[in-house]
Amino acid sequence: MQRYELDAFLGDDHGLDEDQIAELLAKADDIEERCDADPDEMREELVTAYRLMREEPNVVVAELAERRIEAIVAEANALAGLRQSAIVLIGRGDATEAGFARLAGVDRMTVRKWLGK
Length: 117
Fold this sequence. Notes:
Distance between the termini: 50 Å
Radius of gyration: 22 Å
Structural class: mainly alpha
Oligomer: single chain
Order of helices and strands: HHHHHH
Strand content: under 5%
Low-confidence stretches: none
Mean pLDDT: 95
Number of helices: 6
Largest sheet: none
């Protein structure tokens, strides 16, 4: 990441001194290598690196842990809805196992498991 890119990312009121900016630039380079050009993942890691420089680390980690739990619950709920959809739609002949799996973004074996096969 170039300095001008980091400046654009942070905006004018970032509150970092030159040493912190240099440190964050180095972290940004490490993040780019580790994230293999996944822009969402890179952004999240860079935001977290910045926040850890400006905020209480325990607060940052607690918030991230809470977001993770919310995501796990959301995934479990979505999977329950997909399971019921598979049971109903395949059961009444409105979908095939393979077609439903493709539409739902799961593999066919998952659908078969939901159907008790």
